[in-house]
Write a structure and sequence with these properties.
The complex is a heterodimer of chains A (257) and B (251). Chain A has 257 residues and is an alpha/beta fold. Chain A contains 9 helices and 9 strands. Classes of the chains: A alpha/beta (257), B mainly alpha (251). The structure holds adenosine-5'-triphosphate and magnesium ion (MG). The site of magnesium ion (MG) has 3 residues of chain A, from helix 1.
Chain lengths: 257, 251
């Protein structure tokens, strides 16, 4: 099985090739298929930019990147990638259910496999049963984020990119959604890249945590969390080993900022 | 400090009372102040015209209604179609939008005689004037509306490999609807203005013609009745737009 992501000497920036402001330079990153990777880094260091390149929303300026063994473009046009944005990006004129069904309504032509309308099941799974007919503005922030996740899952992506999906939520809701996300991940073989500003969240969720630094954007810390966790990426938030790892990550993050 | 909101009954009752007080003052105070009836006729005198000359008023309402409605539909439709074209072709937009912008700076009163020269004296030039007057605000609003989806929304559709037409129907168009409707609401009034202006310049039928004739003949009760009728026409159009908007936009 190919790695989920393999980036070599990746340069990424905005603006034309000549005038570009480089955000990431010489980035090397390998992410094993089926793994859960947390990404930490100071604001503006290029975390979202990295996800954008993986999702083929942005072309790299140099270096190579393969996603699931192929080009990002191939993978995106086959719709093997799911993206959850920081703000849920629900369409306000569609009901919750119709938002979840969006992957059925658009882009079907490029789909080689058949995806089913699992909206009822997914709404139930995300604790949204009974809210299907509501409009997004009638939901709380946490509920909206769950809808966004359900929508991404309906497309059955092999690779799920999550850009600070729980950034705007209170801690209790965030912790609960963390557990739901882990449960989901265990049940599927999806690879997850999870960007967050919370060290605790990164450590709790990730089998591995990387810390990016800014100017130029690069990996300054790459921490394997599996030694600190039980099988299935399980751990207690207050476990001393996890707390020690968090201190380690905090130090790296402070150096990176 | 913010005032407490009004109860539902009061929100209906107060405007009605307000209008009634103005009408009463108009009816009884203005004659007392010595304002002659040929300048401002009383409400009852105006109402009298509706009773005596109902057929005349309706005969003149009909062409104005048709012109305003046809102009409204044609002008807005043209604006929407052009906006769709523009957002899909930046080249066309760059080439032709400035010209549209230039045309918009010509006052409609200056443009109207030309339109009448081109289209003659029938209903057509009035429809064209009403259409022209609706066209520009809708074009601008529709372009902005079709472009108002956020970067994230576009990226969401790109991740799903949506086609251009899917992006149009499922994202751009629904995003544009609130702005489209706000310009349609404005157009419901301006379309009537356009039709009436057209009738002023060259017609013997319609509310605009009636207004001109009544003015020249010092039939001020008839003049005021025509004004009441034309604003009722705008209000009716406005209400239809709002009703449709409420059904279409539920969020
Ligand atoms: N569309 C764009 N055009 C030009 N520059 C951009 C664009 N988007 C981001 N940048 C720049 O690229 C750099 C990295 O941005 P990015 O959004 O990837 O940061 P981030 O790590 O996700 O930050 P945050 O934690 O605040 O979300 C920033 O300096 C930003 O100013
Ligand atoms: Mg970001």
């Amino acid at each position: 099985m190919p790695d989920a992501i393999e980036a070599r000497q990746l340069d990424v920036g905005y603006g034309g090739r000549q005038t570009a402001v480089k955000v990431l330079t010489g980035l090397d990153l390998t992410v094993a298929a089926g793994s859960f990777l947390s990404i930490l880094g100071p604001s503006g260091c290029g975390k979202s930019t990295l996800l954008r390149v993986v999702a083929d929303l942005l072309d790299p300026l140099g270096g190579t990147i393969s996603v699931l063994g192929e080009t990002p473009h191939t993978v995106r046009s086959r719709r093997d990638v799911g993206f959850v944005f920081q703000d849920s990006t629900l369409l306000p004129w569609r009901t919750v259910r119709d938002n979840v069904r969006l992957p059925l309504g658009v882009g079907q032509r490029s789909l080689t496999r058949k995806i089913e309308d699992r909206s009822t099941e997914l709404l139930e799974l995300m604790g949204l049963g009974g809210l299907g007919e509501r409009l997004p503005h009638q939901l709380s922030g946490g509920q909206r984020q769950r809808v966004a996740i359900a929508r991404a899952l309906l497309g059955e992506p092999k690779l799920l990119l999550m850009d600070e999906p729980f950034g705007a939520l209170d801690e209790i809701t965030r912790d609960r959604l963390n557990d739901e996300l882990l449960a989901l991940w265990r049940r599927t073989s999806t690879t997850i890249l999870f960007v967050t500003h919370s060290i605790a969240e990164a450590a709790y969720l990730g089998e591995r945590v990387i810390v990016l630094a800014a100017n130029p954007g690069r990996v300054v810390k790459d921490l394997d969390m599996r030694p600190f966790k039980q099988e299935g990426n399980r751990c207690k938030r207050e476990d001393p080993a996890i707390v020690a790892a968090m201190a380690d990550l905090r130090a790296a993050l402070e150096r990176a900022s | 400090m913010r005032q407490a909101p009004l109860s539902p009954q009061m929100t209906v009752a107060l405007p009605v009372l307000g209008a009634a007080s103005i009408l009463l003052a108009w009816q009884y105070l203005l004659p007392l102040l010595g304002v002659p009836a040929y300048i401002v006729p009383t409400p009852t005198a105006i109402f009298g015209v509706f009773q005596r000359n109902f057929a005349l008023l309706m005969d003149n309402l009909r062409p104005t209604l048709i012109e305003a409605l046809a102009g409204f539909v044609i002008g807005n439709l043209a604006a929407v179609l052009l906006a769709v074209l523009f957002v899909h072709s930046r080249v066309l937009q760059a080439a032709y939008f400035p010209i549209v912008l230039f045309f918009n700076t010509i006052p409609i009163l200056a443009l109207s005689p030309i339109i009448i020269l081109i289209f003659g004296l029938g209903m057509t030039p009035k429809i064209v004037i009403a259409a022209v007057i609706c066209f520009f605000p809708t074009l601008v609003n529709m372009i902005r509306g079709l472009d108002s989806a956020s970067d994230n929304e576009h990226e969401l559709f790109r991740v799903l490999s949506a086609t251009r037409s899917e992006i149009f129907w499922s994202l751009r168009l629904p995003r544009a609807l609130p702005m489209l409707f706000s310009s349609l609401r404005i157009a419901s009034a301006t379309a009537v203005i356009g039709a009436i202006v057209g009738e002023w310049i060259g017609s013997d039928k319609g509310l605009g013609a009636l207004i001109i004739q009544a003015t020249f003949n010092y039939q001020s009760d008839r003049l005021y009745a025509a004004i009441v009728l034309s604003s009722s026409l705008s209000i009716a159009l406005f209400c239809i737009v709002v009703l449709i908007e409420r059904r279409v936009i539920r969020y």
